[in-house]
Design brief:
Elements (H helix, E strand, L loop, with lengths): L7 H18 L5 H16 L2 H39 L1 H6 L9 H19 L1 H19 L3 H19 L5 H10 L3 H33 L24 H24 L4 H24 L3 H20 L2 H9 L4 H6 L10 H12 L4 H15 L9 H15 L3 H16 L9 H7 L3 H26 L1
Helix pairs in contact: 1-2, 1-15, 2-3, 2-13, 3-11, 3-12, 3-13, 5-6, 5-7, 6-7, 6-19, 7-9, 7-18, 7-19, 7-20, 8-9, 8-17, 8-18, 9-18, 9-20, 10-11, 11-12, 15-17, 16-17, 16-18, 16-20, 17-18, 18-20
Protein name: Transporter
Keywords: Membrane, Transmembrane, Transmembrane helix
Length: 465
């Protein structure tokens, strides 16, 4: 084992990780705690008040530079989504499914799969309104209660799609950076875990839903407006044929992006750039068609609206990510070379110390990452704490001699499934509002399937490690 002496910096960092976890358990925001942690680390390392103050700001800049591609892609996708909704093209994208949904079990799986696919490209937030408005009346007629629609949308969108995030890659970017590994490694390691979690959770949820429907415990007791989306009058593209052509063209363009990403082996930032560039061209082209002489102003308006959405989502992430980036190379870049000789970063050093003093195995590591990931999701955002699981995965993988990508992916899945909008009531409000169901009741319905899924997925991770 490597003989490494831990300094006060290491212990301060570790203490703050424990404080952050405790604060999340208490459902408190942790941004201020992270700011204080950055300042104290700087003060302990440099002994200078003004350098510590500068370090807080510089750590924000560092985190923003790391996250800006993700913030931009979310903003651009949101801007494009607004334009598609104004045009009515969104209506045509899902219209082929209206003739497929004949009964409640088909409705459950079709709505879920469509929600998952759209969420991969647009994220669940913009997809919720689209899916809810278009599929809810169809599901009601097929015998699927509003609660069933909400469960399906949650588990497939905020669960499977958001926790995997294979297209936009915001989640794996955050966890991979904290773990100090390439994004591609996290994505690759997450595939068997995402499949396990997805199949187990959605199947368990359908099993319980089917029992409730048969027992009459859950019915269409919620009044749902009979609407199939935008009216012909409100759609800025009145020609149904043109809307269909444009909808098909957009789907083809994104399918082509996926093909190019596969052939050219594009990952991470390059893959995000391809999707983002395509979205910008779609936004611009559709804007010219629907807004005509006002297109210049409307493109700007939608981009600004998208940026507001993006920074609203990631505003809470920046100070938290800034703290966790200090666990790796960012500390030296921001505060200078003040770590001891031979140090590989605070997190790596803690991992070495853990390996020297604590017997850690795959069972303990996987179980701990699942629990910590779930705890980070208690704030209801799903993203604000997943940098933490990357850092902890790095510590544990050092202790057991490998498995960092699998542990990182496991923590990411647990954090987002819990906090991204499946079992935390305040994160369920958008879906609950669209489906006209009680958010706390929806959380209660989701809880058991999600817990079962996490247990099975953790066991699978133990064997993979």
């Amino acid at each position: 084992m490597i003989n490494l002496i831990l300094t006060p910096l290491h212990y301060i960092y570790l203490i703050f990780i424990i404080i952050l976890i405790f604060a999340m358990v208490k459902k408190k925001d942790i941004s201020l705690l992270c700011i204080i942690g950055i300042f104290i680390l700087g003060l302990a390392g440099t002994g200078s008040m003004y350098k510590s103050v500068m370090g807080v700001f510089n750590s924000f800049i560092y985190a923003t530079k790391e996250l800006i591609p993700t913030i931009f892609i979310i903003s651009i996708i949101s801007a494009m989504s607004n334009t598609l909704m104004d045009s009515g093209i969104n209506d045509e994208m899902v219209s082929p499914f209206k003739g497929i949904i004949k009964n409640y079990w088909i409705a459950y799986w079709v709505i879920g799969i469509v929600m998952m696919i759209l969420s991969w490209f647009f994220w669940p937030s913009p997809a919720v309104a689209l899916i809810g408005a278009l599929f809810l009346p169809i599901a009601k007629k097929a015998g699927l209660p509003a609660m069933g629609v909400a469960i399906s949308m949650n588990l497939f969108g905020h669960g499977i799609a958001l926790s995997s995030d294979y297209i936009i890659q915001a989640a794996p970017k955050l966890t991979a950076d904290a773990a100090g590994i390439p994004v591609a490694n996290v994505i690759s390691a997450s595939i068997p875990l995402v499949i396990t979690m997805g199949i187990v959770t959605t199947t368990a949820a359908f099993y319980y839903l089917r029992k409730d429907i048969k027992a009459g415990a859950i019915t269409n007791e919620y009044e749902i407006e009979e609407t199939t989306g935008n009216s012909e009058v409100s759609m800025l593209i009145h020609s149904k044929k043109l809307r269909r052509i444009l909808a098909l063209s957009i789907l083809v363009l994104f399918a082509l992006d996926i093909f190019i990403m596969y052939v050219a082996k594009l990952q991470g930032g390059d893959a995000t750039a391809l999707i983002g560039g395509t979205a910008i061209f779609i936004l611009s082209f559709i804007s010219v068609i629907i807004y005509k002489e006002n297109s210049l102003e409307k493109v700007t308006d939608n981009l600004v609206s998208g940026l507001q959405f993006g920074f609203k989502i990631f505003g809470v992430v920046i100070p938290i990510a800034a703290f966790f980036y200090l666990g790796d190379s960012a500390f030296t870049e921001i505060f200078g070379k003040i770590l001891p000789e031979g140090s590989n970063g605070i997190v790596n050093d803690l991992g070495v110390a853990l390996a020297n003093n604590v017997p850690i195995n795959s069972v303990v590591s996987a179980s701990t990452l699942t629990v910590v990931g779930a705890i980070t999701g208690l704030d209801g955002s799903g993203f604000s704490g997943i940098s933490l699981v990357g850092s902890i995965a790095k510590i544990f993988s050092t202790a057991i001699g490998g498995g960092v990508a699998t542990l990182t992916a496991l923590g990411q899945i647990a954090g987002i499934w819990v906090g991204g909008g499946t079992v935390i009531p305040w994160a369920l409000i958008p879906v609950a509002a669209i489906c006209r169901v009680d958010a706390f009741e929806l959380a209660k319905k989701n809880l058991k399937p999600v817990v079962i899924g996490l247990v099975v997925t953790t066991i699978v991770a133990m064997f993979i490690i």
